[in-house]
Amino acid sequence: MSFPVTSYDLNPRGEARLTSLASYFQEIAYHHANKLGFGYHDLKESQTFWVLSRMKIRILRYPLWDEKIRVQTWPCCLDRLFAMRDFRIFSGSGQVIVMASTAWLVLDGQTRRPVRPFGKLVQYRDGQEKPFEERLQKIALPGSLSRLDLRKVVYSDLDVVGHVNNVKYMEWCIDAAGNAGLDRSIGTFEINFMHESVFGDEVEIQGTSAGEEEVFFMGLRTSDEREIFRAHLVWDAHDRMV
Fold this sequence. Notes:
This protein is mainly β. About 15% of the residues lie in helices and about 40% in strands. Strands 1, 2, 3, 4, 5, 6, 7, 8, 9, 10 and 11 form an eleven-stranded antiparallel β-sheet that branches.
């Protein structure tokens, strides 16, 4: 599936934002799952729906303004309750410039609890090589984190199933990193989505740096201190604007 990098996809450097890349992944996953017979509308018939649980993105080069990129996805395997789906982005000249791996869960629409993979999901056992050697794991946070930001969930944060869209959490983390992103790019970004947050929730963004190249984040709902997400950002050490 091809996408043009438009003006509203851009960061201040004239490159596609990391969140734009994640949106491309979300869009092509929707279309491909529909084609295989277990998309949003197929699951809705059984009162279930997909949620993204884990994601890791590695950027070799960011797509540029007006560049036409090609995004490829494939279901690679089942890992317990997780349906694994991977991605590659190709540049206009055909080079791989971005790789990503994701883990998805099917939730019951009433209980919001995971259900076991079923029926057509056996196709998830067919796939291509994985972009990363390591499995997606729960991110291990360092000792102590401090408050960086506070977000109240508003209407524009919500997606079609009524909770905060996964791309919004990524955006919150990048914003909480402050002005660091003005003179350097993100090389790797990994995030775990732990629980839902909905309209009116207040989420405290906590974080800490691990040296100069890494930042860890955690989102806590203030009403019950439930952990909503945790994330790990690694800056591209070779990319600094002077």
